[in-house]
TrEMBL record:
Key words, A-Z: Aspartyl protease, Glycoprotein, Hydrolase, Protease, Signal
UniProt-listed Gene3D superfamilies: Acid Proteases (2.40.70.10)
Signal peptide boundaries: 1-22
Region (Disordered) residue spans: 60-79
Protein name: Peptidase A1 domain-containing protein
Coiled coil feature spans: none
UniProt similarity note: Belongs to the peptidase A1 family.
Length: 442
């Protein structure tokens, strides 16, 4: 139970943190590792698993978008399957290090806490125990970061009230109570580490839908007030995801001042204002106005991928989705353009990969034919995807790494298409910038 005095000091801490980090020049650099569930896993299994996860996540989003009261919160399928990125961070005092999924499609930061009964999933690192940390506090229910704030609006929460919340993510969920802790970011040398007190997070003691041994929680990087980005008060963050074939190098996430694109060839496009209701309010919407393959502009109706007034449709960039998802009208244009350039026979690779368009290579050692780059035309910026970022090889299959869905749904730029690109989310300026980069050397 915390006294009113403790609550007040917590509230002050939270506002101090924002001020401290925003002016802290030594900003945060975090390594991201991609989950390769098993090095022997062949690419098709990887794609199939990733796709299954994407689809769960997506279906839940569609459901949420269609719920009139917007009560379904930030649904994403959280089972860390191949294609998710993990960041290392540490919680509490003394700091306990763990890895969590880095997700721009949701907000809450959470980890499993002791005591934990049978409803916790197996995690690779020891459980965090709030009672062993000198910096743990209960987040008061009347905090602006309380997930119970809406439910309690207009009432005076009892002193010591702690918010318990069942956060759903597609077919997954986690039951948390909200606390406040000191987190440590930056995995390598202490000089590069940042310790930040007063971060609101969820202590989970029950979850469902997880099937992993690689992550011990999740870090939301979305637009909402509970996300790491919002709580740190950093106006921008960037990441650079290494090539999918590269299983050795780590990717990088930069938060704060060091998140800047020093690369050449930087392009920028404004974020489009998204719906104000959850979970869509969390997403980073972009204005995709067209797609070209090589020099050919595909005939995609101008409004095919735009956000509608009722909050449906639109196009978002997401670190937690693997395969790009397009409305069927746009997808069929892409598909036809790819088919027109490839002389190999198409084959039904859906059983092996879950992908709709696959070609048969003469043998598992044949190189795929050369393909021109694909350009995503955003408002004011062209994103050029080399063939390796939109086609995927798997033994003797060579597939378009994109999926279709019913027209009118939410379209998503997945992380496969973001490989070897340094991507800067400038939430202060409301722009997304990107530049081709060799992410293994960043
Ligand atoms: C929260 O409630 C406590 C009393 O229970 C009060 O002292 C405090 O000022 C309130 N904080 C906010 C942010 O409303
Ligand atoms: C959380 O919600 C999910 C989905 O609605 C449900 O299956 C699960 O039992 C709930 N968990 C708790 C602890 O209430
Ligand atoms: C989780 O913690 C809450 C609050 O302490 C408690 O009510 C609940 O029974 C716990 N759930 C499990 C599965 O231990
Ligand atoms: C969990 O993963 C194992 C092995 O990867 C798989 O066989 C099993 O079907 C999965 N369970 C669920 C509930 O997805
Ligand atoms: C990755 O590491 C393995 C084992 O250390 C090594 O055999 C392999 O050549 C490396 N691959 C690349 C692309 O560097
Ligand atoms: C970009 O340059 C600035 C100033 O020299 C530096 O602080 C920052 O770390 C660099 N960022 C990257 C991603 O290299
Ligand atoms: C999207 O970009 C086009 C072309 O620049 C512009 O005409 C349109 O107004 C933009 N839409 C939104 C919602 O910003
Ligand atoms: C996706 O495309 C395939 C063929 O390319 C088609 O059979 C299927 O109906 C499409 N799905 C949707 C949801 O439009």
């Amino acid at each position: 139970m915390s006294s009113p005095t403790q609550m007040a000091s917590l509230a002050i801490l939270v506002s101090l943190v924002c001020a401290a980090l925003a002016s802290d020049a030594a900003a945060v650099r975090v390594e991201l590792t991609r989950i390769h569930a098993d090095p022997s896993l062949i690419a098709s299994q990887f794609v199939r698993d990733a796709l299954r996860r994407d689809m769960h996540r997506h279906n839940a989003r569609q459901l949420a978008a269609s719920s009139s009261d917007g009560t379904v919160s930030a649904p994403t399928q959280i089972s860390p399957t191949p294609g998710e990125y993990l960041m290392t961070l540490a919680i509490g005092t003394p700091p306990l290090s763990y890895q969590a999924i880095a997700d721009t499609g949701s907000d809450l930061i959470w980890t499993q806490c002791a005591p934990c009964s049978s409803q916790c999933f197996q995690q690779p690192t020891p459980l965090y125990n709030p009672s062993s940390s000198t910096t743990f506090g209960v987040l008061p229910c009347n905090s602006s970061l309380s997930m119970c704030a809406a439910a309690l609006a207009g009432t005076t929460p009892p002193p010591g009230c702690a918010c318990m919340y069942n956060q759903t993510y597609g077919s997954g969920w986690t039951f948390v109570f909200q606390g406040s802790e000191t987190f440590t970011f930056g995995s390598s040398t202490p000089a590069n580490q940042a310790r930040v007190p007063g971060i609101a997070f969820g202590c989970s003691n029950a979850s469902g839908g997880f099937n992993t041994s690689s992550a011990s929680g999740l870090v939301g990087l979305g637009r909402g007030s509970l996300s790491l980005v919002s709580q740190l008060g950093v106006p921008k963050f960037s990441y650079c995801l290494t090539a999918y074939q590269d299983t050795n190098s780590t990717s990088t996430l930069l938060l704060g001042p060091s998140a800047s694109l020093n690369d050449t060839g930087v392009s920028s496009t404004p974020f489009v204002a998204g719906p104000s209701s959850a979970p869509m309010s969390t997403y980073y919407y972009l204005n995709l106005t067209g797609i070209s393959l090589g020099t050919t502009a595909l005939s995609i109706p101008p409004n095919a991928l735009s956000l509608k007034a009722d909050g449906t449709g639109g196009f978002i960039i997401d670190s937690g989705t693997t395969i790009t998802l397009l409305g069927n009208t746009a997808y069929q244009q892409v598909r036809a353009a790819v088919v027109s350039l490839v002389t190999l026979a198409t084959t039904d690779g859906s059983a092996a990969t879950g992908l709709d368009l696959c070609f048969e290579l003469p043998s598992s050692t044949s190189s795929p034919p050369a393909m021109p780059s694909m350009t995503l035309h955003f408002d004011g910026a062209d994103m050029v995807l080399p063939a390796e970022s939109y086609m995927m090889s798997d033994s003797d299959l060579w597939c378009l790494a994109m999926q279709n869905q019913t027209d009118g749904g939410l379209s998503i730029l997945g992380n496969y298409q973001q490989q070897n690109m340094h991507i800067l989310y400038d939430v202060g300026q409301e722009t997304l910038s990107f530049a081709p980069a060799k992410c293994s050397t960043l």
